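#onboarding

Welcome to the new folks! Below is a worked example of what a typical request in this channel looks like: someone posts a single protein sequence, and someone else replies with the predicted structure as tokens. Don't worry about understanding the tokens yet, we'll cover that in week two.

Example request:
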Amino acid sequence: MQGQARLAADRTDTGATPFGRSHSLDFLRGLAIVGVMAIHVSQSFPSNIHAVDYAFMCGWTGVNVFYFVSAMTMCLMWTQRTETNPTRKFYIRRFLRIAPLFWLAIPVYLVINGTGPGYNAPNGIGPLQVILTATFLHGFWPDSVNSVVPGDWSIAAEMMFYLVFPFVISAFGSRRHLYLALAIVLHLVNVCLFKPFAFALFSAYYGPGHEAFVWNALHISFLNQLPAFLVGCALFFALRDGFAKSDAAILAAFIALSFIANRATGAHEFNYLVINLVLGTFVFWCIRLAARFQPLEALGRNSYSMYLSHFAVIFGLHQVWPFPDGLSSLLLAYVVTAALSYLVARATWHLVERHAQDLAHRLTSRGVSRPPLQPTIAAPATGMR
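Example response:
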């Protein structure tokens, strides 16, 4: 509790605090889900126009935008609240925000996709994959990632970030250089040590012909995503307290060290890091400039459910779609997917999410006080919403 109060009060006068309202965060979540839906719609309904399909494929960056927004939202919520047992209450809120809808998605997608062998599960889906997914540990075993619930790799990364976040922010506070330093260390450990070791281990386990599958599973692993979350925490405090030249110097050193490590190991994560840093800069300026657009904000407020449901929507559309592949088909499929996913999200809000959040509020409402900040930003938020 003392750490939370200190973080809430420990502000400098060097920069404005752009977190008075949640509109920009919802705007960014909306952009993120628009991108995520774009890549998956284009995979099922290609336009067969290279430039268009490539532009839609770039929507994968939406997940990384979610990561930055998630980190900033968690920092914001942590610094706003002053309460007893903050870590326990943080876990209750995050668990009840993510788990109910995710657990509902597990049987739905087992029915839709079955349990047979596939790219993400070369040996099929069994009890191990289901148990790991239900306990949010699926990110640590290659054939559990994306095998039970499509796109669940990002949910695994989010939940692991939630697990470590209270300890990191309690230890580092508002010292954003520590977040960046830890991001650098973890990136280098992943590139130089973990990824080469794990690739050799899992390639031998799954056998010849599965090297691309293993490589992709390690690329989307939590250790490779955690630096983006940590940079997001640093960006939050930079926005709150003011960006300094030393921040730019550390980020430049991060890029240089990553380039050297990539050349030495051939891990091929340098480009991914640079893209993440560019996306982080984009997120930073969207918040700094208070970007708003109500339609995107509406999508952003429902982005978690849309993320989980749009795969099923695309599957259903693909079964009945009457139009041949082409630009018109792609654009129409995208609009229909977005509209149906939004309607599903509104339904799941009333049927599932609202009740889970009410329960979270009842379990955590005692011993809560707030510093005199804008209360409207405290809307339920996660990297996916």
